[in-house]
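Re: the request from the purification team.
They wanted to know what the chain is likely to look like in 3D before they choose a buffer screen. I agreed to run a prediction and write the result into the notebook, where they can find it.
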Amino acid sequence: NQTCRHCHVDAGPDRTEVMSKETLDLCLQALARTDIPTVDITGGAPELNPHFRWVVEQARLLGRQVLDRCNLSVLLLPSQADLGEFLAQHRVEVIASLPSYQATQTDAQRGEGIFDKSMEALRLLNRLGYGKEGSGLTLNLVYNPVGAFLPPKQEGIEAKFRKELASRHGVSFTRLYTITNMPISRFLEFLIESGNYEGYMERLAAAFNPAAAAGVMCRYTLSVGWDGTLYDCDFNQMLGIPLKLDGQPKRHLSDLMTADLNGNPIMIADHCYGCTAGQGSSCGGSLEDAKAA
């Protein structure tokens, strides 16, 4: 329900791909057969999948942690009026994108009026207990730079967000994650159109951090595409670079049932410099901060 300029998955109202209940059921079967501890649900707006609530309920029944990567404005859709209550009831961790504590920068990246909707949605989540100390309901924000540069230190920008959102909008949250914009899809188009592509790629490569490379998420995360194809990460998914198993590409989730992926080679390309630059970047934010925690 949004079309964000930096979106590496090219999401928006015009996209028609939907993960089927059959594929979601395979995900649940894989969970039941493994000790995978966390289900990280993303989109687009994953809550708009007609089977979203069912898979959340089933994953929680299996005792797994569930993360919902939420664009916030989805919480305000009439069809999702009780979504916040559902997420709280099932103790789902909410991870919400918010590129700036200023309306102009957020709207420039995510669409006109999105900042105000985001504030309304965050206050709704706060009223349910999200982001409140002692509630057990985690609300993490995600910061992406609005431009062709690396994110600042996570600890410093988190403190700034916390102060500004509390004082100006009465909003609280648990943590803020900084994530590097990947040179994929819409952000790649922006880099090329603005003449920043070569400079940005050189910036990423020059900032290569071996310590960050040791902790990149593709070492421990398995990405499942909407059709059940497996990838080492969702960046590879958007570039059509599937996981290889026994040297064969395009492995489907059904193959996971009998496969051991420990030590399986990870597919890499130039975009991987985005995760290894500077303080490092992952779906859980800065790799330096994650290591310190």
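For the purification team: The two ends are 34 Å apart (CA to CA).
Please add any questions underneath this entry.
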